[in-house]
Structure prediction request, 312 residues.
Amino acid sequence: MRRMFAFLLTAALAGMAGAASAASPLVDVNWVKANVGKPNVVFLDVRGEGRADYIRAHIPGAIYSDYAKDGWRVKDKNGTPAMLPEPAAMEKLIGGLGIDNKSHVVIIPSGTNALDMGTATRIYWTFKVMGHDEVSILNGGWQAYSVVDEKTKQPVNPVETGNITPKATTFKANVRTDMIPTKDDVKKALDAKVPVIDHRPADFYLGVTQHPLTKRTGTIPGAKNLPEAWITENNSGKFRDKAALEKLYAAAGVPTSGEQLSFCNTGHWAKVGWFASSEIIGNKKVKMYDGSMVEWANDANLPIEAKISVGK
Prediction:
């Protein structure tokens, strides 16, 4: 009897520990359907096509936010675009969406390609920086959820039409400044031989293509190239699993453990790489350089490496 009681107590405690654990970084369609209408679960629709598509059909109860227009990224005091806003601005934005510190936020991107998933991973990273761990991404995004029955031509999964205006609430940030390395931190990392990972397409990495907001082509010296399109299956909205990612990281010469810094042009593509390293592979020592090449390449005092010089 004592052994049985001890077993039941251990199982109960294990169940309680599981319930208290942080949200899974990725959830699937079945999880979404099972949690529609649950208290404190907020489905945050961030499809890039705009509010019109959201109004036509969305996950029941989902709220909408425009990633490009609502203030998820802003120009900082130094003039660098697409940067993380100040905490007060984020508190206002997130609270205005009806999200408080108890909410489990599930981000719903379009899911058509890796670039779409970058929207989700950027917002996911923002919540993490603000100290909010109860956040997940729907793997495959709206593309995975919005399948249609071939015979009836009707949605397989429940959808809702119209617009939902969330009731504003209070969200308090607890900023993790260690997740926001500056260009000075990157310089120190280079001196310490910390790996830096360029998640842009190869043409940017090699110096063939120049971002319109940068003054120089190329990459941070010594960077390895692991394009964000590799990280999802055939450049879709579905992330590759850990085993597949480890093979790709090995092929690119990118470590799967230890300190490293991810970057791109403006901190969008790099969020896909950061998410894969930190949340799927499990390397919690990876950080994302928000200023990325738009900040780095525009500082003439910082080194840059162009592997190919073709001119404009």
In short: The first strand starts at residue 26 and ends at 27. The radius of gyration is 21 Å.
